[in-house]
């Protein structure tokens, strides 16, 4: 029986000028291509999916964990593939994670195939940078969720001000 790898990803964003901006990592894929991805990695036996997502974001970006707020699980999928060169059996859980710190403090260290970080990407830039259609759709869904949350928060704030 083939082992199924459990993996957690973090779609990291922050709000700038009332709009979400996203973090992507530029890396060498195993195929040799350069690609942009969200922070991600394998879940260790001792940790929850949520803990793994936060740990992977920290390991790959050095963003302080106390500045990361896990907002919601966005999507879980199973990746199963065999093309003659590799086999992939992976369960992947994606989380929406808000970063409350200074985006200019993001740094990348040289390791694990990483080439850089793009922290100030707008939704249109993200869609252009991502290679995989399912990831583009996931980011679109996350973006809609974030903007709806912000609208609900603003409506609630306006309502509470009227009560004062």
Task: Map the helices and strands.
Layout: E1 5-16, E2 19-28, E3 34-37, E4 40-42, H1 49-61, E5 68-82, E6 87-99, E7 114-121, H2 123-129, H3 133-163
Parallel strand pairs: 1-6
Antiparallel strand pairs: 1-2, 1-4, 2-3, 2-7, 5-6
By CATH, the architecture is named: Alpha-Beta Complex
The low-confidence runs, each spanning 5 or more residues with pLDDT under 50, are none
Roughly how many Å apart are the termini?
A: 63 Å
Indicate how many domains the architecture comprises: 1
Question: Total strand count, please?
Answer: 7
Reported for the largest beta sheet, the result is:
7 strands, mixed
Strand content: 35-45%
Structural class: alpha+beta
Query: Percentage of helical residues?
Result: 25-40%
C-alpha-based Rg, rounded: 17 Å
Polypeptide structure, described:
By secondary structure, the chain is of the alpha+beta class. The chain has a single domain, classed as Alpha-Beta Complex (Nucleoside Triphosphate Pyrophosphohydrolase), CATH 3.90.79.10. The chain is 31% helix and 40% strand. It has three helices and seven strands. The protein has helices at 49-61, 123-129, 133-163; strands spanning 5-16, 19-28, 34-37, 40-42, 68-82, 87-99, 114-121. Strands 1, 2, 3, 4, 5, 6 and 7 form a seven-stranded mixed β-sheet that branches. The radius of gyration is 17 Å and the shape is globular. The relative contact order is 0.22.
């Amino acid at each position: 029986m083939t082992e199924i790898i459990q993996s957690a990803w973090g779609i990291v964003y922050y709000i700038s000028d009332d709009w979400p901006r996203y973090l992507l990592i530029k890396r060498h894929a195993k195929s040799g291509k350069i690609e942009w991805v969200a922070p991600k990695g394998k879940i260790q036996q001792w940790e929850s999916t949520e803990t793994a997502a936060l740990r992977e974001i920290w390991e790959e970006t050095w963003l302080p964990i106390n500045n990361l707020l896990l907002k919601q699980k966005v999507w879980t999928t199973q990746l199963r593939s065999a093309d003659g060169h590799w086999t992939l059996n992976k369960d992947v859980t994606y989380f929406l994670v808000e970063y409350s710190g200074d985006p200019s403090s993001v740094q990348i260290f040289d390791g694990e195939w990483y080439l850089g970080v793009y922290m100030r990407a707008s939704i249109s830039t993200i869609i252009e940078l991502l290679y995989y259609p399912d990831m583009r759709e996931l980011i679109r869904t996350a973006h809609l969720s974030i903007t709806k949350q912000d609208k609900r928060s603003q409506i609630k704030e306006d309502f509470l001000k009227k009560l004062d």
